[in-house]
Amino acid sequence: MHEQHPIIAERFPDLHPPFARQAAAVEANRCLNCFDAPCTAACPTHIDVPQFIKKIATGNLEGSARTILDANVLGASCSRVCPVEVLCEGACVMNHHNVQAIEIGRLQRFAMDTFHARRGKLRKKFDGSRSGHVACIGAGPASLACAAELAQQGFAVTVYERRPLPGGLNTYGVAEYKLPAWASLREIELIEELGVEFRFGVEIDAGGLNEIDSAFDCIFIGVGLGAGHGLSVPGGDNAGVVDALEFIAAYKTAKITSANGKVAVIGAGNTAIDAANAALRLGANEVSIVYRRKRESMSAFEFEYEHAKQEGVRFLWQTLPMRVSADGGMLEFLECTRVDDSLRPVAGSEFSLACDLIITAIGQSPFIALLENMKGVALENGRVVVQRATGQTTNPKYFAGGDCVNGGREVVDAVADGKRAAIAMTRQLETAHA
Amino acid sequence: MPDLSVNFAGIASPNPFWLASAPPTNCGEQVMRAFDAGWGGAVWKTIGEQVTNTASRYSSIDWQGQRMMGLNNIELISDRPLEVNLREIAEVKKRYPKNAVIASLMVESKRESWHRIVSQAEDAGADGLELNFGCPHGMSERGMGSAVGQVPEYAEMITGWVKEKARTPVIVKLTPNISDIRVIARGAKRGGADAVSAINTINSITGIDLNTLTPRPNVDGKSSHGGYCGPAVKPIALNLVQQVAGDADGCLPISGIGGIATWRDAAEFFLLGCGTVQVCTAAMHYGYRIVEDMIEGLEGWMSEKGFASIEDFRGLSLPRVAEWRHLNLNYKIVARIDEAKCIGCDLCYIACWDGAHQCIHRDRVSGPVDGPVELHPTPAALEAATRVTIAVTPIPKLDAISRNGSKNVTPIERIPRVDETECVGCNLCSLVCPVDECITMVEVPTGLAPETWEERTGKKQCAPPPMHG
Known about the structure:
Helix content of chain A: 25-40%
Structural class of chain A: alpha/beta
Oligomer: heterodimer
CATH architecture of the largest domain in chain A: 3-Layer(bba) Sandwich
CATH class of the largest domain in chain A: Alpha Beta
CATH superfamily of the largest domain in chain A: FAD/NAD(P)-binding domain
Largest sheet of chain A: 5 strands, parallel
Distance between the termini of chain A: 44 Å
CATH architecture of the largest domain in chain B: Alpha-Beta Barrel
CATH superfamily of the largest domain in chain B: Aldolase class I
Strand order of the largest sheet of chain A: 3-2-1-4-15
Largest sheet of chain B: 8 strands, parallel, barrel
Strand content of chain A: 15-25%
Shape of chain B: globular
CATH topology of the largest domain in chain B: TIM Barrel
Number of strands of chain B: 18
Strand order of the largest sheet of chain B: 3-4-7-8-9-10-13-14
Number of domains of chain B: 2
């Protein structure tokens, strides 16, 4: 799995190609080195952006990567998956100067790629080990950031993950042209080398939770979100209707390497766009995004929408799926109707969209079954309630972060949550064992 | 259209832009191409007894991605046979009679040697002679170049020998590698020189290869100090030119040299009294074609200013260079930040706090506070406050974010404010500001009459304290 399947490698090359050394230096020299830089403020993990960029300019590439890692242990994946247009690069003062913003994401990737190529290791922040054992449930970005920080602080950490590989959406859910799975796993190897214990293929039930509760000093909940919402129309349970994240995970793990015919993607979020682009790259002839609202209400970032149009995705606005029709097991049509601004069907506007595959990307439901078993941990609308600055839940032994708290944001938000929780847990463990 | 032609100490030239004695004037073929490109004159690569040069010869200083801010060389004088150089000088003069060809000369310190080379150069048709008393590397170890130019008596003596023979104007090229350049200029003048040129290159070691630990340029594992030139040396050259131009005892026509790359640089040398300028590094970097912009740009500026000839503005800035004791202590300016132009980089803020007088603050939101530094949060406190804020990625489905929100407005909290009661008018903020005309220095009337240090204290220039030996 560390090796990219040749077809996937060919169809999903880097969307933003890496910088060569001299080009990186030229770009780094363009940075004004702002004081209390807006890019740093905009980054949820507050990476000291001008500092790492100026270190690239001087050729101090190891120092540059350490500046990044010090703030964000998943600096490599964030450099590739962050929506920099609305984060660091969106905050760049060059935007006020009518000059192109500094390419912070690509510079960060350059520093991190160099670090990995030279087989750099994470450093401990505390010399030796301390008593205190923390369990992280889930091995996605929030848990990884939490586990890494705690391990660096000298505590023992065990991560439980139901899937066979760590990384959560970083490994299984990000478009391969942004972050290939191998790059996610390479980054996580450094966290394993800190001594973090990983237990894969472990489904945590109520009994398992009880065991964990009694065996650990603190527990971090980083379980993300649960299954995707299904298509609740007649015929929506057809085998030809697949969940977008499962579709993406399948091609990323090379379980599928092609798509054929016509594809309908339902929903217009960033995941819908990733799935639609992937279907086209895998060989689909025609891919349509079906969305019941207007373009202005689309939850995908503007740059993702522009990208999808360039890839050749067709958008059907104000279109509501009504029924899936199949001939035996084979999909034939997605029966749709146009709707008005109040989502009411427009009489006589029904039409049939021929399709061979339907991909649903209409959001994930919370991991209620698991979360409800956590003792004394309050939920609100299916999300774990925490104190923002510490990630502490209503049960002081439990901390939480990432999608299960914020409802589904970016990798960098999960990393920030995990790090804040780890810092709070460190304080709590220090006090408890003082 | 302004007239750029000049007569420099008796040497006529269609324009004041000359190529300095250096690799760009190594041979006749080059000099003719340079004249075709528009150069008014060329000072031939120094001729004398043929030498052997090394490989490599040059090294440079890059700065933030820009190449050759400063160039260093360890090349000696011409490594071509003297007869070939003389034949080519004659050929160039025959084909380009209107352009100025100056022969740069350097021979051993013997009267007859100098007499011979002067005759040879003039017989070849040179319009003038430049005596290379400045080359700081290699030749100085053989008793030539700056070894002559660092001793006023030698400079005077050899200039005298040359003048015994010369029929064309004699320019003495001055080395900057001396504590007071005026002393040598005076020596040259006493020796009868018609003009001086300044500056030759500055002794330098440009840097060391951090892999091999060998300084650059590398000649088989060793290096030698060289002569530094290029844009980095211009301020030093301007100062030394002013020193000579402002010295009544040593003042002769000056051909300005040192980091001149554009018409703007050239105009500055003319304003400090130079009659021509000589260019080397910029031509080595980009080729002879740069002269087109130098001519056009200077003509454009002269037209704008109403100057019809170089003489119209030559030396106009000299009276504005004064000694410190004659500067007005009651002149007050303060920095003003144009909010509409500010991009919020806050470089002025940190420069003022760490490098100046702690009078630029970020308190437009919290409320302006004028007064001493203790009343304001430190830069570290401001930064720490930012680092503990919780920032999240703005997501369309979760946050009410404007899709068309303008990124072009600088947030008010990032636009710094100048405490004018504390501002000393040092200029630093306006120097670091990346936006043209965003920070301007504005005069604030003090109501006080101008007063210099000399007037305030009644003191004249003091001699240094006596030496104790």
